[in-house]
């Protein structure tokens, strides 16, 4: 689907997103997402990351209403095109967007952003989080 058609369909599905005042949201850019994927997996997943953020062309900051939530439809689509590792990269992409937003809001609210966030997993569960300023 071309971008113009996608934007028109998205606008029809989410008309309020075009009119609403959306709070500032910050997130990593394509270069950051692809570099992190490359570091994690050896592959950049450039096409996947572009697809995830494509709605920003027509929705701007409100683009997270599309492709930035965990759903079985998105998961099946991504797995078909990029495999199970692609699904993981999609979930990491979403998580990193939210972490960066939280960090930048913390900077705005608390005036001291985090410089490092570490999450520890044991037996597939988060067991500890360390935030360094």
Textual characterization of the structure:
- The chain is 59% helix and 11% strand.
- It is mainly alpha-helical and 133 residues long.
- The chain has one domain (3-132).
- It has a two-stranded antiparallel sheet with strand order 1-2.
- The model is unreliable at 16-25 (pLDDT under 50).
Could you name the key traits of this structure?
133 residues; mainly alpha; two-stranded antiparallel ribbon; globular
Mean pLDDT equals 80
Q: Count helical runs.
A: 6
Kindly provide the radius of gyration, computed on alpha-carbon positions and rounded to a whole number of angstroms: 16 Å
How far apart lie the N and C ends? 44 Å
Level of helix content? 55-70%
Any low-confidence stretches, pLDDT <50, length ≥5? 16-25
Query: What sort of overall outline do the alpha carbons produce when their principal axes are compared?
Result: globular
Judged by helices, strands and strand pairing, the structural class is mainly alpha
Assembly annotation: single chain
Proportion of β residues?
Answer: 5-15%
Count of distinct structural domains:
1
**Strand order in space, largest sheet:** 1-2
**What's the SSE pattern?**
HHHHHHEE
Largest sheet entry: 2 strands, antiparallel
How many beta-strand runs?
2
Give the gist of this structure.
By secondary structure, this protein is mainly α. It has one domain.
């Amino acid at each position: 689907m071309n971008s113009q058609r996608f934007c028109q369909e998205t606008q029809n599905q989410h008309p309020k997103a075009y009119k609403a005042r959306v709070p500032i949201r910050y997130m990593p850019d394509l270069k950051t997402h692809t570099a992190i994927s490359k570091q994690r997996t050896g592959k950049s997943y450039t096409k996947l990351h572009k697809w995830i953020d494509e709605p920003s062309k027509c929705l701007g900051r409100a683009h997270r209403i599309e492709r930035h939530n965990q759903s079985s439809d998105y998961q099946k689509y991504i797995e078909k095109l990029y495999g199970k590792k692609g699904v993981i990269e999609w979930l990491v992409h979403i998580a990193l967007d939210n972490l960066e937003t939280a960090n930048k809001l913390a900077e705005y609210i608390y005036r001291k952003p985090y410089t490092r966030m570490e999450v520890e997993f044991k037996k597939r569960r988060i067991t500890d989080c360390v935030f360094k300023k």
